[in-house]
Write a structure and sequence with these properties.
This protein is mostly helical and 387 residues long. Helix content is 68%, strand content 0%.
Length: 387
């Protein structure tokens, strides 16, 4: 019961801090584990989903189609015609495009199948397995997706101080913010209920600590050192892991715990999830700098190549470069800024670090017995970190 109360406390704290972080920093780009190379990525995912038994990109469908969220969806329709991010976030879940597949649950299921039952598992439990995966592990995959979905919804909050008439009516934007908070809370509450029903205190502790990590990651993102470019590479990596990697890594470890695997298997699963998430985040950030036709595209000033560039040139030179690329109206010329960044070592450093994390993920998963599931996890690691 202590662990369940801890999860509830962290849920409330997360809701407040994520919302605060989003409002302070303004709009954010929302990623649902998207892929930089759609055709190859889609095939890798399609093959992997066949191995675990059903498409995991709709794992949270039961919750999304509940009466409560159906009512939420009716209200979200009021945002049509505005630029509120919640509308695009909702659209991404309803229209499951090939570029926006939810991958965390799929990875959890593949790892569960790759590891199989442990040596200490009772033979009476084996008939409960479907496609080599325990029902509790499937529930965990759904819980992981729900938490990630809640996180995306909560981060889709507009800084109303930056509101302009072109965004939509002010009352509608206010309403959208309220909906983002309430619907995100609803999803997270459902996830925590499902977590308690797993009846495993270590799993509850792992996942609730991942929620705490995500809160901490949002807090660090809004710290002055992050904004001013005073982060070291290791500090940036630690911060990115909290926001983008902790949930996947700890969910992978929890899947091993549910099958009663030993600490070594749990550690390997954790390492795979950690390095896969970090490698994917780095690769996703790289696309604005290496993909053909991206010269005029807008990119985040918090993306890895920009952060590493700031570390290379130093805060003072970075501020001068920003000023050089801004017009009188403070509009940034992203094409010019991109050229300045590509002249230094930041982009190549990110590419090297991305390859490093991809290799570490492959190294971890290859310690599991050869199987279709292991091969699928290898393919996912390769595709997610290929730039």
């Amino acid at each position: 019961m202590t662990h369940i109360r801890t999860c509830s406390t962290r849920m409330a704290l997360w809701s407040r801090l994520v919302c605060l972080g989003s409002v302070v920093r303004g709009r954010r780009s929302l990623s649902i584990f998207s892929s930089p190379s759609p055709s190859n990525w889609t095939k890798v995912v399609s093959d992997a989903e066949k191995i675990v038994g059903y498409p995991t990109s709709f794992m949270s469908l039961r919750c999304l189609l509940s009466d409560e969220l159906s009512n939420v969806a009716m209200h979200v329709r009021k945002l049509v015609g505005t630029k509120h991010p919640l509308l695009n976030t909702a659209r991404g879940f309803v229209y499951d495009s090939k570029h926006n597949l939810q991958m965390r649950g799929l990875v959890v299921l593949l790892l569960s199948k790759a590891a199989g039952p442990s040596n200490t598992t009772s033979d009476s439990l084996l008939p409960d397995m479907v496609s080599g995966i325990y029902p509790s592990q499937r529930n965990l995959a759904e819980i992981t997706e729900l938490i990630h979905t809640a996180f995306l919804v909560h981060r889709g909050i507009v800084n109303l101080k930056d509101w302009t008439c072109s965004d939509g009516p002010f009352k509608d934007m206010q309403f959208g913010n309220k909906m983002a908070v309430l619907s995100g809370d609803f999803l997270l509450a459902n996830a925590c209920t499902g977590l308690a029903q797993l009846n495993n205190t270590k799993v509850v502790e792992l996942i609730s600590s991942a929620i705490g990590d995500m809160v901490q990651g949002v807090y660090h993102e809004n710290s002055s050192s992050a904004e001013e470019g005073h982060l070291s590479v290791s500090a940036w990596e630690d911060q990115t892991f909290l926001s983008h990697g902790a949930l996947l890594a700890k969910s992978c470890q929890a899947a091993m715990e549910l099958a009663r695997h030993n600490s070594e298997a749990q550690k390997l699963a954790y390492e795979y999830g950690k390095h896969l998430a970090l490698g994917h985040k780095l690769n996703s950030d790289l696309q604005s700098f290496v993909k053909c036709g991206s010269d005029s595209a807008v990119f985040s000033l918090d993306s890895a190549p920009v952060v590493f560039h700031r570390l290379t040139v130093g805060p003072e030179r970075w501020i001068r470069q920003l000023q050089q690329t801004q017009s009188i109206t403070k509009q940034t010329d992203y094409s010019k800024l991109r050229r300045l960044i590509k002249m230094e070592q930041g982009v190549s450093q990110v590419a090297d670090l991305c390859s490093y994390h991809g290799n570490k993920a492959l190294e971890a998963i290859r310690c599991f017995p050869p199987s279709e599931a292991r091969s699928a996890l290898e393919n996912i690691a390769s595709a997610a970190t290929k730039h």
